[in-house]
Amino acid sequence: MAESAVTFLLRKLGSLIEEELKSLGRVKGEIVFIRDELQSMSAFLRVADAIEDTDPEIQAWVKQVRDVALDTDDVLDEFMLRFARHHHHRGFYGSICKIYYQIKNMKARRQIASDIQDIKARVIDIAERRQRYGYKFSSTSVQASSSNVANNGGWYDRRGDALLLEEADLVGIDQPKQQLIDWVLDGDSRLKVVSVVGMGGLGKTTLIKKVYDDLEVKRQFQTHAWITVSQSFNIEEILTGLIQQLFDEVRRPLPHRFETMDNNNLKAVLKEFLQESRYVLVLDDIWSVEAWDAIKIALPNRNCGSRVLLTTRIGNVASTSCREFHGYIYEMKALSPKESWTLFCKKTFQEKDCPPHLIEISKSVLRRCEGLPLAIVVISGVLASKDQGRVDEWELVNRSLGAEVEGSDMKKILLLSYNDLPYYLKSCLLYLSSFPEDHLIEWMSSIRLWIAEGFVEVKEFGKTLEEVAEAYLYELLNRNLIQVAGRKYERIKSCRIHDLLREIILSKSRDQNFLAITDEGNVRWPEKVRRLSIHNTSPNIPQGKCFPQLRCLLMFGEDEPMSESSMPLLFNGGLRLLKVLHLRSTSLERFPGDVVKLFHLRYLSLRGTQVKVLPNSIGLLWNLETLDLKNTYVKELPVEILRLQKLCHLLLYRNEIGHIYRPFHHKHGFEAPSKIGDLQSLQKLCFLEANHVNGSAIVKVIGRLTQLRRLGILKLRKEDGVGFCSSIEKLSNLRSLDVTSIEEDEILDLQSLSPAPQFLQRLYLNGRLEKLPQWITSLHGLTRLCLWWSKLRNDPLKSLQDLPNLVFFSLVNEAYEGEGLCFKAGRFQRLKYLGLNSLKELRWLTMEEGTMSRLEELIIVDCELLEELPSGIEHPFNLKFLELSDMSDRLVSKLNQNIHGGDYWKTKHIPRVWIEDSKDSYWKGRYLYLVMCIENHLTFCLCLESPPVTIFYLRCLTTIGAPTVSALPPSQPPTAMMYSHRSLYPLRFHCCSAIYLSFSSNTDLSLWTERDRSLIGGNAGCLPQLVPDQTLKLKQLTVLTLAETDKEKGPFSENSNVMNNIFSEGTSPKNDIP
């Protein structure tokens, strides 16, 4: 880390000497001397950083170098704060200001000069010590280290490599995976826990993930959720996370006032939800019996075969949980030598054999791993970056691990993987330790934070800082130091760090005074804390505590969000050198006034706060590069924002969410100053509103923002279309464009755009199009295309089918008004997602054999005239998910596998099929033909608000109703009958409307008891008399009807004639589907 600190300082010194030479005055000679001396130490620091843990003298020397570099950085930032900031003033006023501040800061100038003299003396002493320790820096070590830096120091895009490694086959997992699946699907109806126990790094989470994702496991359960508990667990976060996942899975809105619920209410909501279905939950990484006890209370045991999968390092946790719930314990074992070698070669040599001259060294390294998969993949990441022809480099890695085998070998390996990193990646990796344990680290947020901290340097002409930072992330992926946590088609959205590695880098961060973390009020307060990360609590700042060196303040969690009253405590501590202020989702209602005093501030995030207005003084933040106001209530930017000439990322918009059918004006942007084009460093600008007084002027000046990569504009008027196109033509670096017209029927006039930005990757058009713009067909790099409310009359597929890289395509809300769509053979070969939503005139859809060969998700919503499944839907064999929501009765009914000539066979190969009837949150009163299907796991879901009905079919049909309604499962059937296709389990309802069931022969009702019958609809007359243990030979259940009735009179009033024919052999209620 000393190398990182020195390298970043040298970069700053070079810039300062070049730009502020006159301001430096008499200290410029000392600064040049400090720069030259530190530069001469750089090569030795590469070795010293790697061996400091094994040599106390070197460790002390490295600490001195690091401290002097950081102290120099403080002095330079203080100099910039007092002197360089006044260069922004121009003219007569600027001259007066300059004279005033020169007089005012005379004392400060003398102090800075004195500090620099002291630093110079320390640098001389450090240089002398280096010469005394020279024998420890052997030429071989320096050469090997230099080679390593040479190999890793350049900018290299390793994205493809990372994706290949991510898909690598796992080793030695087949047998334990099958064992766990057998336990999960053992047929026992009781709630059971399956625990996987073992030390960290054995691959417990990987194994459970393979079981959880298994298609057969998915098919056997209606409800699925995964939550990571972690050592510092927070029960409220765990419950909240589970509820959000479960409600999202069935497209159900969260309960009213969910955000303000306490633990008891959250447990009640979770328990009520889980009572409705057979569920499988994963609780990953439980560290204590107390954590298990806090969670298990919310897990109902309704005797329907639910399962909880649990991973833990603690044997007592596994035994306690399994003893209470009749479960199984699987003790995770290390890989065998053969399995270890297979995994090592896969990761190190990318599926190739180990070269003969490296076999002995490789086996020596592998012995230290002791069969731990994490150790193997991490050390493979180190060795994969080495030259296979340089045996000395491999020997150096081997020697670094030591000769002896001991319990700390895992730590040695992880430390080696850290030490092997080039200097710029060390700082980036340490920075990720600021995120809470098991926190999903947002991909783009980490990139912007690294840039703000100065960790990213462009070494290749034409690359942006963002592109270089993303390459850093992919390099960490390739080295197996971070893992992909979330992906959305072609883009990575989030990543995470393994717990063991996080412990290592957290220890490094503390030892090197890189970072301090508050956690539930506990914090170390180093004398010169430079970065402070606050987790789930307000900071308990000691009275009179100062933070003159603090560069970064991050806040995470919502337990006790920071309020405005907490801010003065921090600012009174002197945050004058702060560069990063991350106050995301805190309870701020007003912009903190002290923030505008932070001259060095580069990154400011108030995302998710209640802030409504930006002060005019925002213009004082001259060095600001990122302003993140997403999901705040700011509607207008003051004209003073134009002073922020370094601003690169301006994110200010708010989405209305919560319903499947979003309104046209679901996104709210901001009103910008008419001269927004002056901010020529902008790379991201979202979302401008173009309907204000200066809207026409704004769309014309956007063309001056030639660095833009992402642009979002709302409320564009037709008459501004030509001017807007003229501006877009000048944005040659544009990667993402999102345009919305002022109203749904307002034409988006984009036809005149020529040429289109050739690097455009994502295009979102919201509004009426007279025809599909021809320029779209020239976008060969386009990966995502979304059209809303376009009202196209001609088939757009003819123009789009040759786009070579299209991955995501959707037509939404009458985007197309034609009757049919045909996907031709051999076209759309990279498409993974296809969405068709609310195409009111669509009557047929054809997929020719050989089209969309990589399609994974097909979503068709609210296309009511489409009465047949897409012709050829059986062809895309990669299809993993099919959704049919709010579709015609005829289409849905033909999915019944028992209907002769139906379409069930066309979907048999699709692992998951979702059928939902949820428009306007109201069940539309259709008949629903029961689909009894185990191998395909078809799930029908009716989102009911009125009438409030919840119905539960074990293994056959799931319907989700209003949150206040509970569904009672049947009394426990014999195990042998649980998966029977022909057994109709007792249904129990709590509802205000009549429920009628139509039976014919061959339906087995032997499980229905007198109690079951009495609970149906609260009226014993709803079904024929049932005799316990007697089987009624009736036909398969064919129709389920929910009929609204007069609540006061009840379903059997004299005006109700529905019951007249409901139990007639072979008949069904009136108006039944033929």
Automatic annotation (TrEMBL):
The residues covered by the NB-ARC domain are 174-353
GO BP, sorted A to Z: defense response to other organism; defense response to virus
Q: What is this protein called?
A: Disease resistance protein RPM1-like
Where is composition skewed (Polar residues) in this entry? 1053-1074
Tell me which residues make up the Disease resistance protein winged helix domain. Answer: 435-505
Q: Which InterPro entries match?
A: Apaf_helical, Disease_R_plants, LRR_dom_sf, LRR_R13L4/SHOC2-like, NB-ARC, P-loop_NTPase, RX-like_CC, Rx_N
Give the region (Disordered) as residue ranges: 1050-1074
Name the Gene3D superfamilies for this protein: 1.20.5.4130, Helical domain of apoptotic protease-activating factors, P-loop containing nucleotide triphosphate hydrolases, Ribonuclease Inhibitor, Winged helix-like DNA-binding domain superfamily/Winged helix DNA-binding domain
**Family, similarity comment:** Belongs to the disease resistance NB-LRR family.
Q: Where is the Disease resistance N-terminal domain?
A: 5-90
- Which molecular function GO terms apply here? ADP binding; ATP binding
The organism's superkingdom is given as: Eukaryota
- Assigned keywords, A-Z: ATP-binding, Leucine-rich repeat, Nucleotide-binding, Plant defense, Repeat
Every copy of the Disease resistance R13L4/SHOC-2-like LRR domain together lies at 574-860
